[in-house]
Amino acid sequence: MTQTDRTIRIAMNGVTGRMGYRQHLVRSILAIRDQGGVTAPDGTTIQVEPILVGRNEAKLRHIAQTHGLEEISTDIDTVMTRDDVDVYFEAQTTSRRHQALRQAIEAGKHVYTEKPTAGTLDQAIELATLARRRGIIDGVVHDKLYLPGLVKLRRLVDMGFFGRILSMRGEFGYWAWEGTDIPAQRPSWNYRKTSGGSITTDMFPHWSYVIEGLIGPIHDVYSQTATHISERVDEAGKIYTADADDAAYAIFNATTSSGDPVVVQMNSSWDTRVFREELVEFQIDGTAGSAVAGLFECLCQPRGVTPRPTWNPDLPDIHDYMSMWQRVPSNGTAPDGSIENGFKTQWEEYLIDVAAGSRHRFDLASGARGVQLAQLGLLSAEQGRRINVPEITVEA
Prior knowledge:
- It holds the Pfam family GFO_IDH_MocA_C3.
- The chain is α/β, with parallel strands linked by helices.
- It has 2 domains: 6-142 and 342-360, NAD(P)-binding Rossmann-like Domain (Rossmann fold), CATH 3.40.50.720; 145-340 and 375-379, Dihydrodipicolinate Reductase, domain 2 (2-Layer Sandwich), CATH 3.30.360.
- The protein is 31% helix and 24% strand.
- The protein has helices spanning 18-34, 57-67, 76-81, 94-106, 121-134, 148-158, 199-214, 342-356, 364-383, and strands spanning 5-13, 38-39, 45-53, 72-73, 87-90, 110-113, 138-140, 165-173, 218-226, 231-233, 239-241, 247-255, 261-269, 280-286, 289-293, 298-302, 326-327, 387-388.
- Strands 17-16-15-14-8-13-12-9-18 form a 9-stranded mixed sheet. Strands 1, 2, 3, 4, 5, 6 and 7 form a 7-stranded mixed sheet that branches.
- α1 packs across α8 (342-356), α4 packs parallel to α5 (121-134) and α5 (121-134) packs antiparallel against α9.
- The chain is globular.
- The two termini are 37 Å apart.
């Protein structure tokens, strides 16, 4: 290790879960380790050293042995008090998140967490406020903004490709099997209110930062939720009552940095069959052009090549609309020109901020706005009306 090297030790909780293991441990932290660390703007090389923590020692030990890791622990309280632990990463179920993050912040650890950051808005604001007062570098995973498709879409926004942006709409979802004839691919807690299940609670925190990142702040929300399928099969093979919403249909009003109003429509459903190229797609329409982005691809249609359709139910339409869109290139920083894994990219940004003592741009305040939007979305559905989204204040 040279004098310009720094090692950041990260207690990673939740790596036995699919997302925590695959995206955060393997494709992010271990990938950063294997590439020799992250180079900060000042030339410092930041190395990473994960410590796997959780409740299942056997699973932790298996993961550690698989990847040549030295430390595991089922005693999170002791890990929190260790002076050599710099960052606490949280990817447990939502019901455990608030207490774990609060404990880490009070122990003086920097925190990086999945979302939603808490079960209620009050808890989310409490975490953001506590972190600000303790001088913690806090980060919230905003992975969808780092997807190749949305990176390209954001690039078009920054270039002024759309002219005046008029609207945005998104479609997310797929058929989540009930577990009767085909095994369910989502855990049963997703569909139980008492366990924190709800597609609104799950997805609106994503839509919060996606809309903010592409368009601007959200001012109000109108949402209608549904529990389309009321019986599902749990992990033990037993039928249970699914009482959490499994679909949400929402309209948000947002504003661009230049003050232009934008109407955003978002459909989220675990009860739909996919007829689009990817599981999620976003379309932005503007006076100068439109673009559609998914997880990986982005296609655009500038004003100059926009067709002039005429509605005529008596004659077949001669336009091949799909062929009139142009594919947006990646122009990424990877050696092959691709855009790197978004989870890894945000981890690198966060680690650089920790090393520099700088506030991470996607902090617990942004996480609180996501919790707020989910909470207001559920309230809107319950009351059947549009609800304003007040600005959140985090006191230092």
